[in-house]
Specification:
By secondary structure, this protein is of the alpha/beta class. The protein has a domain of 134 residues: NADP-dependent oxidoreductase domain (TIM Barrel, Alpha-Beta Barrel), CATH 3.20.20.100. It contains 15 helices and eight strands. Strands 1-2-3-4-5-6-7-8 form an eight-stranded parallel beta barrel, surrounded by six helices. Helix 1 links the parallel strand 1 and strand 2. The chain is globular, with a radius of gyration of 19 Å.
Length: 300
Amino acid sequence: MTARLGLGTYRCRDVAGAAAMAVRAGADWIDTAPNYAEGQAEQQLALVVPGTPGVKVSTKVGFLSAVTCDRAVRAGVITASEAEENYCLTPRFIAWQVSRSQRILGREPETVFLHNPEHGSMSAELKIQRVYEGFGALEQAAQEGRIRAYGVATWSGFSHGLFDVPQLLELAVKAGGRGHHFRAVQLPLSIVNLAPIAQALDGAGVLVDAAAAGLDVLASAPLHGGTVQEMVTPELAELIRPGSCPATAGLAVVASAPGVGRILLSTDSAQHWAQAVAAVEQHPAMSPDRLRRVVDVLGT
């Protein structure tokens, strides 16, 4: 598999400008959420994406921006206590948010992710029930043609053992039958978050399970907010890919991970985007042996 680069908008200062830059450079996927850019990310993307049918757009449900929270309360789809949490995954709210995102974006989202369903202090059992109910709401949206697919975007759900891919598939079948629309997982992968890559090299873990199930895997935070560039020494960069800089070396590791199909990079810079495309799409993946050496050097 050859990974592709997509635009992640979480850290973009100018979402519309970043999206226009990425589209001009040939990007075919943009990932966002209603709470990004102080609640304005979807509105900013609406300036760019309605006229780009070849670019897939994914968004999320879960976290509430101040504007969304106020409107959801007035619409009667969340309670005052849910508003205080700034987070909600009830079926009623999901249905409302999906319709709102579609209306704001001016198009049908390709994929809608449950956003960090591990969030909150409730028990693991209740969180899993919340995922199941969320899948049911997203199945309904898919069957009505308001979204094409859904998935789970998580920061720690896999790493902390709240769920795994087989369990999520069971929930999807329970919610939507064998023809369910659960199609993707999104999780952080980088030299800071190496454990899933190390597990995949041993033929186990989320990346292997997702590939076996035919799920799209989107890698978020591949540079971990700049931490990767600080961690990659010249010697490590040479081991990863001779002649590479720290950022492109870090991207090369994620691009070489088994099962990863999409890497989400947040940047407003055309120069950084071009360098990332070269690192991800225009070089062969590292061999498993070289990737294992890198994992052994860094540890997990």
